[in-house]
Write the structure tokens for this entry.
Amino acid sequence: MLFSRLNIGRLVSGGLITNYFCTSACRHCLYNCSPAREKDSITPAAAEESLRAVKSLGCTAVHIGGGEPLLRPEALGAVLDAARRAGVSVDYVETNAAWFTGAESARELLAPLREKGLRTLLVSISPFHNERIPFSKTAGVMEAAAAAGVRIFPWVADFIADLRGLDTSRPHALSEFEERYGKDYLRGILRRYWIHLGGRALEAFRPVLRKKTLDHILRESAGNCARELAGTSHFHVDLFGNYIPGLCAGLAIAREDLGRPLPAEKYPLLTTLHAKGVRGLLDFAAREYGFKPRQPGYIHKCDLCTEVRFFLMKKGYDRSQELAPRGFYPR
């Protein structure tokens, strides 16, 4: 082979996705989590196996996310037990607070999890979460966590004032934020905290961002995607044993293939992206499946890549298992 193969040899920092099911379907969700996703949760055995795998590649601490991990607190407790057995610490567990029904029941839910290793709860705070979840629930979880001895990581605390400026007892459409805080509110969110424009965020922000022509995208992305695919500073492994390369949601490497160069015959799409970038993927999809660009313009090369991958899935692509999990690609 004339080009180097993708090799995930050392992991820096990442997380374990326990489930893709979520009571919300946030507009900015990178992983397309929603109530329509599969209801599976990671098993203790799968969690321990994945955690031992990431530890063997140098990562000794992870965060836990979803989906919503706290929809099944017993399953989360089993994951915390698995982390202890694997010798991997848990930096924080993410939650959107949708499960909150009252202060006492929340404390009773969190206290045993603290005993199992839950030290910090990342509480999601944003206008996107508020479209489904009243801020009163979010505030209630933060208060209950403090009472249970669990630290709070409010992400993002900067939005608290915005949410308190509206009725905290109910959810609010994004249009209500625009009415109160200005028509440029959606675009302004990107100036207030980092969001990777992938997954559902592509459609959320498409109306307010400048698009580039296909030719422009291909010219400025003439190289490969090796850097993006090989990045391990914010990786994830999901409940199915899929390693998600970089921030490329909807692409997967089998857990057992980490730590060695990926065989091209098993990973033709990733091999193409690693060697030839999005142009290589586009050429493959056009040649083999008749792909034609659907959008008049694209935000960036990841936008184009996502469109190509959705097209391949709709065409029944079955030459590899790289387009995974299947729930990322709704029919």
About this structure: The longest strand covers residues 89-95. Strands lie at 14-17, 61-65, 89-95, 120-124, 151-155, 235-237, 242-244, 253-254. The mean pLDDT is 97.
